[in-house]
Write a structure and sequence with these properties.
Layout: E1 6-13, H1 18-31, E2 34-39, E3 44-49, H2 55-64, E4 68-74, E5 90-95, H3 99-110, E6 115-119, H4 125-130, H5 132-149, H6 165-191, E7 194-197, E8 200-202, E9 207-210, E10 213-222, E11 226-228, H7 236-239, E12 256-260, H8 264-275, E13 279-283, H9 295-307, E14 311-313, E15 316-324, E16 327-334, E17 337-343, E18 345-348, E19 352-354, E20 387-389, H10 400-414, E21 428-431, E22 436-441, H11 444-449, E23 454-460, H12 465-470, E24 476-482, E25 488-495, H13 498-510, H14 515-520, H15 530-537
């Protein structure tokens, strides 16, 4: 192993707090390591390893401090900056122009590297064009339409008339166009990286061809995202169906809508059409809707949707889809019964497929998994060390903030030699139903599967003052903690504004906060965030017997 004063990272086990990091830092410095930086949350010590210093001395120093030294890795040095040459056109070429691509381009350009983005479609990727932005704009409109006709307060008369979907979609399109220009297109000139329009595909491990033009880069990043996928249901393709993309373009509210798939996308869009006047039926093969959330959340959400008029079929197999006179017929098997569901539109929301077809990745020596996603290591490197992957195309959690995080991290590793690993500790997810579903960290089942002994707390919203004054107590807060230590492992909420509240839990999980410490922090009265405090108190106390704001 070459030890010529190279930057290294040493994995260190047993660290649980800032004091641990200080002890490890002192131990390594005492052994002769230089520029030591220790992060207990990631279990890593980064430092410069002087040539005369033996590896055994470093390990002995860590062990002497009471911790467990693990793998020692040399970090790559940053790639030299300057005008590319020697047959190389750019330092970095990114295939794709969405959130991962732009995060990478901005990071690399700020560090002084030359960058080009290759895109054959619309700049901005899924989120701003056909995902987060347009869907949430419509969802909010749907919530207001529903609330105008259904509210719990006495002495108020409100009504909700028919929704002009064409006008809503036009307003949504204007918003999308503005944000795409401000947050993506304008940044190309602001940062000065190149935008190359065309379809890119690899013709060798070192060369990307774009509509006949050969491009050579020191490093490539594949960030092509994912697209809606449909299962092989007999008759579905011939009959036609809506996806999460085409559903956002409808200009008339369908009288009847069958939604196949009741995870986040299906639930959000299905409830939107329910709110604007459709008769909605959800169908899912899983034994409950929102199957990746806590069972208590699935049950509460089912109750809300059915109360609003939806029909929910779980444990259901779709046998076929066909056109009949004046409607579409969806045949499903549920509990041994066969049902024929009449509908005007069918929305398929059963997942998304990574966009890797036609990229020539086999010629580039890049490995794909069975779903067609790039196989990357924990530093986002593919089987070709010159090519990295980021975002939905890697099979990572499909959130725009994950894509942006991975795009920047790929540049840190590929160009700057950071040797950083992907870390999803405390990763939040939000389903923008009304009320919202929000989670972070591990569910109870995931914590058990990871080998933890767990304790849980489930607090109904009827115990949360904010919900009481809202006259809407449909929902709950659930916390998962490690038994014994009380360290918070996961949190789930089904409540108004849950997507905002969950950030408190994200910070608690990432920083190793215990349920007792969460309960001891200040939470503003008459906010939904107070539900986290009350749920934390529920581990040891009966909150029904506490006065308002009782500590």
């Amino acid at each position: 192993m070459d030890t010529n004063a190279r930057p290294v990272v040493l994995e260190v086990g047993g660290m649980t707090c800032d004091d641990c990091a200080h002890h490890v830092t002192a131990a390594l410095e005492g052994a002769g390591a230089e520029d030591v930086s220790v992060t207990w949350r990631t279990g890593e010590a980064r430092f410069t390893w002087p040539e005369p210093l033996a590896e055994g001395a470093l390990r002995a120093a860590v062990e002497g401090a009471g911790y467990r030294p693990g793998e020692l890795r040399l970090l790559a040095t940053s790639m030299p900056k300057g005008e590319p040459g020697g047959g190389v056109d750019y330092d970095l070429v990114v295939v794709g122009a969405g959130s991962a691509a732009f995060a990478a381009a901005i990071k690399a350009t700020e560090a002084g590297y030359t960058v080009a983005l290759v895109e054959h479609g619309t700049v901005g990727g899924t989120c701003v064009n056909v995902g987060c932005v347009p869907s949430k704009a419509l969802l909010r409109a749907g919530e207001l339409a529903w609330e105008a006709g259904h509210h719990p307060f006495a002495g108020m008369s409100t009504t909700s008339g028919p929704v002009d979907l064409r006008a809503l979609v036009a307003q949504k399109d204007e918003l999308v166009g503005n944000l795409r220009q401000m947050k993506y297109a304008d940044l190309v000139d602001d940062y000065g990286f190149a935008m190359i329009t065309g379809h890119g595909h690899f013709v060798s491990p070192e060369v990307l061809e774009v509509d006949g033009r050969a491009l050579r880069a020191r490093v490539y990043l594949v960030a092509t995202g994912a697209s809606p996928a449909a299962p092989p249901i007999p008759g579905l393709a011939e009959t036609g169906y809506l996806t999460s993309t085409s559903a956002l373009e409808l200009t008339e509210v369908p009288k009847r809508l069958v939604v196949i798939g009741a995870n986040a996308i299906g639930l959000e869009l299905g409830q939107f059409f329910l709110h604007v006047g459709s008769e909605v039926t959800f169908v899912d093969v899983a034994d409950r809707i929102a199957p990746f959330e806590e069972p208590e959340v699935s049950e509460a959400l089912t109750s809300v949707l059915t109360a609003q008029g939806a029909i929910v079929h779980t444990g259901a197999q779709v046998l076929g889809v066909k056109r009949s006179t004046g409607h579409i017929e969806v045949t499903v098997s549920v509990g041994g019964r066969q049902l024929d569901l009449a509908s005007d539109q069918v929305l398929v929301a059963t997942g998304r497929r990574p966009n890797t077809e036609g990229l020539g990745l086999e010629a580039a020596g890049v490995t794909l998994d069975r779903r067609g996603a790039l196989v990357v290591d924990d530093e986002l490197r593919t089987a070709n060390p010159r090519i990295y992957g980021a975002g939905d195309v890697t099979g990572a959690p499909q959130f725009v903030y994950v894509s942006a995080y991975e795009g920047a991290l790929a540049v840190d590793n590929a160009l700057l030699g950071a040797g950083r690993k992907v870390d999803f500790t405390g990763l939040p997810r939000v389903t923008f139903t009304a009320p919202q579903v929000a989670s972070a960290g591990l569910t109870e089942a995931q914590a058990h599967a990871a080998g933890y002994k767990v304790a849980t707390s489930v607090l109904p919203l009827s115990a949360v003052p904010r919900a009481l004054v809202n006259h809407d107590t449909h929902g709950l807060v659930k916390l998962v903690a490690e038994a014994g230590t009380g360290q918070l492992l996961g949190a789930s909420l089904f409540a108004e504004g849950a997507g905002d509240v969950i950030q408190t839990a994200v910070l608690a999980i990432r920083h190793g906060i215990t349920a007792a410490e969460l309960a001891a922090t200040f939470h503003p009265y008459l906010t939904m965030t107070e539900g986290l405090k009350l749920a934390a108190q529920t581990f040891t106390r009966d909150v029904k017997k506490l006065s308002c704001c009782a500590a």
